[in-house]
What does this fold into?
Amino acid sequence: MRVLLFLSAVLATAVLAAGCGGGDSDEPALPAGTTADNIRTAVYERSLSECASYSLDRLSGKYRVAKQWPAVATAVGRQWTKFFSGGSDAVAVGRDGCLQGKSMK
It folds into this structure.
């Protein structure tokens, strides 16, 4: 019984140590303040879609901002950035997506 517990503990430790990994990743570490491309793309696409789908009045009410596209676009970009856990740089990407979406109406 003790041998089995010991082997289980050793195996669990080995698995955890392997998961911690070193610097052998193929993906470079992101500099502070930048958001991964896939997150930036998701923020842009969701912002574009939302602003293409809903009116200025509805969006300004939802996000509780002035009924002006710049304010709404920033609020939409900020919300989708938060949803996808992006960095502050992704807010501008979302804002651009929203402004692009509103022009598609």
Summary: The CA atoms of residues 30 and 66 lie 34 Å apart.
